[in-house]
Amino acid sequence: MSDGMVILEKALNELPGGIAIDVASGSGNFARAVIQCSRETRMVVAGDISLKGLKHIPDTELQNILPAALEGDRLPFPDSTFDTATISNSLHHMEKPEVVLAEMVRVLIPGGTLMVREMFRGGNQTPAQQTHN
Questions:
Q1: Model confidence over 55-89: pLDDT tens digits?
Q2: Are 91 and 25 in contact, with CB atoms under 8 Å apart?
């Protein structure tokens, strides 16, 4: 396992639990990782603009993962709904990433956890960093 994956798994293990939202969830892989690695997270809302990719979530996982059609810049939840908000490898696709991040913070409870996993580009990268950070 690469150093980056070890760091990610450790961060997921340390999530505070409760209810999470994964924005721009795609096929739900990161939502699954949150459920599998975080012993305390009870449910993840896997939100994406389309439910097409989310239809691949196995029925056995749907008790803990709730697929939802939504747009990251207009989350249809009241303030302070979630204990954790995550986004993985999607922010670079957003037209206004700052609006998406502000929405994610808005739906977090005070003191909640925001986790951003994103690709980046810069100088002096290791081979692992050239793909993910």
A1: 888 888 888 999 999 999 999 999 999 999 999 98
A2: no
